[in-house]
Design goal:
By secondary structure, this protein is an alpha+beta fold. It contains 19 helices and 23 strands. The strands form four sheets. Strands 1-6-5-4-7-3-2-8-9 form a nine-stranded mixed β-sheet, with helices on one face. The structure holds adenosine-5'-diphosphate.
């Protein structure tokens, strides 16, 4: 008697996706099924260790093909599935069976004894990329009954009792008809199967076997070849080396192997930006595979995101996310570490303060930084991609802990600048500094055009000095933590004294300051509640006014802090700078001389509003601003 059941909604969706898949990588179905088989054996093995009634056995995964029937069969002698398991695991994808298995384990610490490969891949359903029909025969421990699941990829599946001698699972795929775009028959070739196992599943720790037929020379009774006499012999061939990729000799491991390993282990569909294969002996010995994903994980900046590398001891899986192995600013890296120096029974608490682990962590950090610097020198295009994805993390790393890591990270920073076509390092900026240039100038803005349009750029432009363009909120905080690079101090184009005038200009400015003293004092008096000072500017040549700040909190920092609901709302000391050579200033002077008190107030307010708007600050009273504008416009037209 067979029952017809409906797939759960999510499963239908995934099924549909697989059946209509134009994915070029259909071959990964084999990897997924082998991973499931390996997980099932892990689970069986775990139970056999805990329960004396469950015998240990020789584990194996088999892959067989039948050219006549056009089938591929993947079987394992793992834990198998009960009737309910089939419905919950194969009829539903909403919850991962592997995850559930872990949750059901009473003994929490034992979680770590299991190695569960590919927890969240497309898994079982990948079968439908190549199969028109899938039959699963399975029998679990503690049950005499075996069950068969049959699906042709429609909305329903069949489930029935069947007979099966041994505990475990056998999955039979009935291949689809060949199409113009895809030749499914190739999956029936011994050679294809063998190379797919090598490519994707070589490191699986149980033997993956296949019956192969080889033609060999017949021998006489002395063991010598008999000429022209051959026979076909069938034997079991183990297709995988069972050596974990990270334990292999570096020169046997190709980039492609690392990429495939990364994608299957960490469920990414893109190759990593780069991988590191580390194996060290000596003071600390460990093997590690470290990957930088091409795209930052979508939840990288959410609180839920857990950093960490997988941890193995002598090839035995210990835990999934070992946090102490990864500094915060590298939280985006994925990978695993296998060390023979750690005890199998190490607990989470002990990990927190394990000296060995600290040493491994700092060694990995060094290697990653070394690699990043190498990429920066040898493949700048790639480095720019890295920085695009993770620059914010590097900046955060410089700032974090009062700059504790700034020296090892500062050379990884790159910035857009006013004079260069692409982002440059601080080193490059300093190398390109003009002879008389003392400072590293920077400006906060979203792009080059905005910086070039800033009134504060007038004199800097005239000198031809380059200016770093800071466009991340954290940038000015990073710069203030760095404070200098290669002995050159950083200077904001709108903070403090720019000191860009020559002697003659300085003399003239002093003279102007003296002459205009009284009118400036008047404006200062009008604006005394809004700015900390009003001055004759030494940085303007074209523009009438600008805003600057004294040392300390900068204008940009004030804006960033204002947007942070939790942060302190510290304010910059705002200074209104006025260009004494601008027509507008001359107009103000004449109003002042005419003792026109009302106009004087209006002009002073407008000057400040202008400066605030150009700097990207909100106006305190936009309605008043608009009314004053109207008044003056009407007046001007009379
Ligand atoms: P995942 O492996 O990510 O959980 P799958 O769709 O590949 O997702 O598999 C769903 C579940 O079905 C597995 O978690 C497991 O419980 C069960 N399963 C799949 N293949 C086997 C197998 N060969 N033996 C036992 N259980 C299996």
């Amino acid at each position: 008697m067979s029952e017809i059941k409906e797939f759960k909604t999510e499963s239908k969706r995934l099924l549909d996706l697989m059946i209509n898949s134009i994915y070029t990588n259909k071959e990964i179905f084999l990897r997924e099924l082998i991973s499931n088989a390996s997980d099932a054996i892990d689970k069986y093995h775990y139970i056999s260790l805990k329960d004396g009634n469950v015998p240990s056995k020789e584990y194996e995964i088999r892959v067989e093909t039948n050219k006549k029937n056009r089938t591929i069969t993947i079987s394992d002698n793992g834990i198998g599935m009960s009737y309910d398991d089939i419905i919950n695991n194969l009829g539903t994808i909403a919850k991962s069976g592997s995850a559930e298995f872990l949750n059901n384990l009473k003994d929490k610490d034992a979680k770590s004894e299991l190695e569960i490969i590919g927890q969240f891949g497309v898994g079982f359903y990948a079968s439908f990329m190549v199969a028109k029909k899938v039959v699963v025969d399975t029998k679990t421990i503690n049950s005499d009954k075996a069950y068969r699941f049959i699906s042709e990829g429609t909305d329903t599946y069949e489930i029935e009792e069947t007979s099966k001698d041994d505990v475990g699972t056998t999955i039979t795929l009935y291949l689809r008809k060949n199409e113009k775009e895809e030749d499914y028959d190739k999956f029936l070739d011994d050679y294809t199967i063998e190379s797919l196992v090598k490519k994707y599943s070589d490191y699986v720790k149980y033997p993956i076997k296949k019956k192969v037929i080889e033609t060999i020379n017949q021998k006489d009774e002395n063991g010598n070849d008999i000429e022209n006499k051959y026979e076909d012999v069938e034997f079991d061939k183990t297709l995988n080396s069972m050596i974990p990729l990270w334990k292999k000799n570096k020169n046997e491991v190709t980039e492609e192997m690392l990429n495939e390993f990364y994608k299957s282990k960490f469920n990414d569909y893109l190759d990593p930006l780069f991988s590191l294969h580390i194996s060290t002996e000596g003071m600390i010995s460990y093997n590690a595979l470290v990957f930088v994903p091409s795209k930052p994980p979508y939840d990288l900046y959410s609180e839920k995101y857990e950093k960490g590398l997988q941890l193995y001891t002598k090839g035995v899986f210990i835990m999934d996310k070992c946090k102490p192995l990864v500094p915060d600013y590298l939280r985006f890296i994925k990978g695993l570490v296998d060390s023979s120096d750690l005890s199998l029974n190490i607990s989470r608490e002990m990990l927190q303060q394990n000296r060995q682990l600290d040493k491994i962590a700092s060694s990995i950090e060094k290697k990653i930084l070394f690699e990043l610097n190498k990429i920066k020198e040898n493949d700048y295009e790639k480095y720019k991609k890295f920085f695009e994805a993770y620059g914010l993390n590097i900046k955060w790393g410089v700032y974090d802990g009062y700059g504790a890591n700034k020296d090892k990270l500062k050379d990884l920073l790159i910035y857009d600048t006013v004079n260069s076509e692409e982002k440059v390092t601080l080193k490059k900026y300093v190398e390109n500094m003009k002879d008389k240039q003392e400072f590293i100038y920077f400006a906060s803005a979203s792009n080059k055009e905005s910086v070039l349009a800033m009134p504060q750029m007038d004199l800097v432009k005239r000198q031809g000095f380059d200016v770093l363009i800071l466009n991340d909120n954290i940038d000015e905080f990073v710069i203030s933590i760095l404070s200098e690079y290669d002995g050159k101090k950083f200077k904001s184009i709108n903070q403090g004294d720019l000191d860009l005038l020559d002697e003659k200009e300085k003399e003239e400015l002093e003279k102007v300051k003296e002459e205009k003293q009284t009118v400036i004092e008047k404006i200062k008096d009008i604006l005394k509640d809004e700015v900390s000072d009003v001055v004759i500017s030494s940085r303007l040549s074209e523009s009438p006014v600008c805003l600057s700040s004294s040392e300390g909190i900068s204008l940009e920092m004030e804006k960033v802090l204002a947007n942070n609901p939790l942060g302190n709302q510290a304010k910059a000391n705002k200074i209104l700078e006025i260009n004494p050579h601008h027509e507008l200033f001359k107009a103000i002077e004449s109003i002042y001389e005419n003792n026109d008190e009302e106009s004087m107030n209006d002009y002073a307010e407008l000057l400040l509003s202008q400066a605030l708007l150009m700097e990207g600050f909100p106006l305190k009273d936009p309605v008043k601003f608009s009314n004053t504008m109207c008044k003056l416009m009407v007046k001007a037209s009379k």
